[in-house]
Prior knowledge:
Elements: H1 2-26, E1 32-47, E2 52-57, E3 64-65, E4 70-74, H2 77-126, H3 132-179, E5 181-183, E6 188-193, E7 200-201, E8 206-223, H4 224-227, E9 235-240, E10 248-260, H5 269-272, E11 276-282, H6 285-290, E12 300-306
Antiparallel strand pairs: 1-8, 1-12, 2-4, 2-7, 3-6, 4-5, 6-8, 8-11, 9-10, 9-12, 10-11
Amino acid sequence: xxxxxxxxxxxxxxLAVWLGQHWLLKGSPEGFASGNxxxxxxxxxxxxxxxxxxxxxxxxxxxxxxxxxxxxRMDSATLEAQLRQAQAKARQAGDNLLSAQAQVEQAQSxxxxxxxxxxxxxxxxxxxxxxxxxxDEAESGFQVAKANVTAAKARAVAAKGAIDEAEAGVDSLxxxxxxxxxxAPRDGRIQYRLANVGEVLGAGGRVLTLLDLTDVxxxxxxxxxxxxxxxxxxxxxxxxxxIPDKPIPATVSFxxxxxxxTPKQVETQDEREKLMFRxxxxxxxxxxxxxxxQVKTGLPGVAWVRLDATKPWPANLETPFKS
Length: 323
């Protein structure tokens, strides 16, 4: 029973929209079409990238904010402690590298001495001025010194790798710490506060909803016989119920490729004419920025589109606004 009521309500709503559009279209001047709609703006969710407790909320619903402005902060005590630990580890790795480099220098000095002794022993052996055992001892000392240099250099390379690893850990934690500060992704107005201070949020937990009031549109529905004549960028006008004497300039920014309210079987021309396509008209960004304090979403009105570019706008649709 309940499902039947819901289905009936959806059918009535779809029929009401279609009839409203049909009534508007019948009264449209030649070369123009219109439809009912509501002002819409792009919504953005400001969310926490990592889970944690919401520590501060610095804005209220209705506040205007600018791009980069701090809106909220997540609790960062744990991350700050981890960052200090990682920084200490990085400093220790730096000290280890200095020690390893000193060992390389010491081993190289010993190698230079061992090489000099080996060369002297070799010359003396050729002149039979030294015993073979002394020569063998000098040669062995030279080989050991070379091996010590190689080992010292390997320890220095490992120490350098430990520094890189420690610094990467510091950078990772610093990045996470930066993410605990939630900033406005663009200019706009706070629409909703979705969380309260003290709440524990999961990764991706939404804190605020932001409206971009420089990206405002209205969607209407037109039959395929008219939607097919529209070109993207065509001129449009929006007439709001609250200011019916001040048409707002707009342009067609979207025409749907799929029909709405489509009959199950489309076979006759009459049936095809019932196909409705969503059309979106957009208000110029410069005009919105000039009147940003007056921009409100949800306001009902009528959007007019010009199907024939050679037709002048009727006098009642000439706009007083300049973009």
